[in-house]
Design brief:
single chain, UDP-N-acetylmuramoyl-L-alanine:D-glutamate ligase, Protein-Tyrosine Phosphatase, Chain A, eight-stranded mixed β-sheet, six-stranded mixed β-sheet, 17% strand
């Protein structure tokens, strides 16, 4: 069955000469043929640069605790395509996914459409079978011309942290944070807009200005909702409905509190019957797959023995910033293995990391758009304890790890997938 899925996906990739072609015409045409399934669902749309998946996973975990059924659409996948398709609180099986793909492929009649667009149409088509479920939908590259932006109405739009990324998809004269904010937020629907904590006041100001004419009910971090961390890693959340003292969530990193708080603010504003207990229990069961994920057992974990092994897909400068904030809070030696895609600002990314014991660059297998590890090593040459290894396993074995040391593998979600597959 996996071979069958691969053959279908290969056909999907040949339907359009470009991997990404920012336009809504193709997805609208296909969805019209499918009976406009996107008009039959209840959706929460999530846009931004960082924290989209983590915010969705926090929402999903709390909703499940409240016995509310969900469909979830995220991208990219880390290990298998099925991860992108959750229906009725279950990841779709290989058989069901192949049948869904074949049905939509047949209706598309070989018309040009990008890979992401046809996957999005498949999600909408299947999601319409569950009209009472809440759909948690992650936008792709930007949003204004993103395939997920064909809904006529939704329950809410969440704006997570926005920062500089994907500049290669913008004209050289428009590679600014203002343009990125415009692409991600100017086309949001008129419903509820929840704006997460941003990495600086300027970005929040640009967001406010961009959406000021949108007539949605707007909920801003530090104005309509707020959180603070307690010394025991529990935290405090407050919005206009009141305050909650919350236990330590099961995910690592201060930045995850930002994502969790945004999820809580969203679900409380929607009056879905979410109780404090649903929130308290839900935030201790979040799936943090590939995001500061602790590897507790497996082939690669055996190589590091008594050291701590983490994998995290952070791949842009803001991701590097919050990742280093977490690392800086730890009292141990920190070793990094990094592989990245070619279109990232590698020097800016690495500039955020301080007090690192060693860095090893690697190639990302099966990714033609990745930067070769040797070239990445050259870009990181200001670091003293730096080397290159051609494989993840050789990179791990090259580290002189002591008990209690931390080894973090990061730089790309694609690298995360390879690590988890190897493990």
């Amino acid at each position: 069955m996996k071979m069958k899925l691969q053959k279908i996906l290969s056909r999907f990739q040949k339907l359009h000469p470009k991997e990404i072609d920012l336009s809504l015409d193709r997805i609208k045409n296909l969805c019209t043929k499918l009976g406009n399934p996107q008009d039959k669902i209840r959706a929460i749309s999530v846009v931004g640069t960082n924290g989209k998946n983590s915010t969705i996973q926090a929402c999903y975990s709390i909703l499940k605790e409240a016995q509310i059924k969900c469909n979830v659409y995220t991208s990219p996948h880390i290990q298998k395509i099925n991860e992108r398709f959750i229906f009725d609180n279950e990841e779709i099986s290989d058989n069901e996914l192949a049948a869904l793909f074949e049905k939509v492929e047949e209706i598309n009649e070989n018309q040009p459409i990008t890979f992401f667009e046809i996957l999005t149409a498949c999600f909408f088509y299947k999601a319409s079978e569950y009209p009472d479920n809440i759909n948690l939908i992650e936008s792709g590259l930007f949003f204004r011309f993103d395939a997920t932006n064909i809904l006529k109405k939704n329950l809410a739009s969440i704006i997570t942290s926005i920062s500089k990324d994907h500049f290669d998809w913008l004209p050289s004269t428009e590679q600014t944070i203002e343009k990125i904010v415009f692409e991600k937020t100017s086309a949001l629907l008129n419903s509820n807009i929840i704006v997460a904590k941003q990495n600086n006041k300027n970005t929040m100001s640009i967001i406010k200005k961009t959406i000021e004419k949108n007539k949605s009910n707007k909920i801003y971090y530090d104005k309509e909702f707020y959180y603070s961390k307690n010394n025991d890693n529990s935290f405090y959340f407050e919005d206009k409905k009141g305050c909650i003292n919350l236990p330590k969530p099961n995910v690592l990193g201060q930045f995850q509190l930002e994502n969790i708080s945004t999820a809580i603010a969203t679900l409380r504003i929607l009056n879905l019957g979410i109780t404090d207990d649903h929130i308290k229990n839900g935030i201790q069961k979040i799936n943090n797959f590939g995001r500061l994920q602790l590897i507790k057992s497996g082939k690669l974990k055996n190589l590091v023995k008594d050291s701590i092994l983490l994998v995290s897909g952070d791949h842009n400068e803001d991701g590097a910033r919050v990742l280093n904030e977490y690392l800086d809070s730890l009292n141990c030696n920190k070793h990094l293995i990094i592989g990245m895609m070619a279109n990232k600002d590698h020097k800016k990314y690495i500039s955020y990391f301080k007090n690192i014991s060693s860095i090893t660059t690697v190639d990302i297998p099966n990714q033609p758009n990745a930067i070769p590890g040797k070239k990445l090593e050259d870009k990181f040459r200001n670091f003293s304890n730096l080397n290159y290894k051609e494989s993840i396993e050789k990179a791990i074995k090259s580290k002189e790890l002591k008990k209690g040391d931390l080894l973090l593998i990061t730089g790309s979600l694609y690298l995360c997938g390879e690590v988890l597959n190897l493990n």
